[in-house]
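Side project, low priority. Logging it here so it doesn't get lost.
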Amino acid sequence: MLHIVACIKQVPDSREIRIDPKTNTLIRQGVPAIVNFYDLHGLEEALRIKDEYGARVTVVTMGPPSADKALKLCVSMGADEGVLISDRAFAGADTLATSYVVALAVEKAAQEWGPVDIVFCGKQTLDGDTGQVGPGVACRLDYDQLTYVEKVEHLDEAKKEIIVHRHLEDGVERVKAKLPVLITALAELNKPRRAGLPGVLKAGRYQPVVWTTNDFPDIDRSKIGLKGSPTIVGKTWVPEPKKVETQMLTAESTAVLAEQLIDSLYATELPAKLGWA
């Protein structure tokens, strides 16, 4: 049976994010947490493979104890197991330290529940927005990485092969790769399902597996948390809003309105900047 690991992250709801005007940092207190949008698409594809081919789906996240709610949501959707990597020693991790710990978790999941064939991640998170953790995990595991995937065309369990479509800036790339692989999911990949009543009831009774530093006896403590995070944020600030002058144009017909618009544009510096004059 295939074993798929879906990596998720609990992030602040971007619709509720506010910035402290004095510190220029995110105000997290009172902001609801949600499962990262793109990660849900990765989980959904894992569950679709499970439905079609049969597979075990393990969900992994690194975060505070409150992140168990995100794992319960994933279990309600159909995941078999949820693993919370939580320890104060992991706090302050950048993408380098995070990818190191998540890669260790994937290896431990393979020891606990069988070899991992596919790892799904979202293409990026809504808070960090770097897109670095997925590829970082792939490099540490020495997995082929298939990024920006918008479609899983075919999976051959016997041959351990997968065919996907990658959305690039200049087109779509169709790629065949040997398992194990790591895939980063785009929103176009699928539409995440809603949890059914049996899944909700199961999740209500479920307690995620919790792994701390003690569960990784060979962990290099110099590579985790703040100590293992070379990324330095020199400065953050909120851009000042700019006042823009507006003008309302009205006319009895679209033809007259178009003439007014052209006259208004030529009365500005825009035509000279665009080389119209």
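Brief comment: The chain has a mean pLDDT of 91.
Revisit when time allows.
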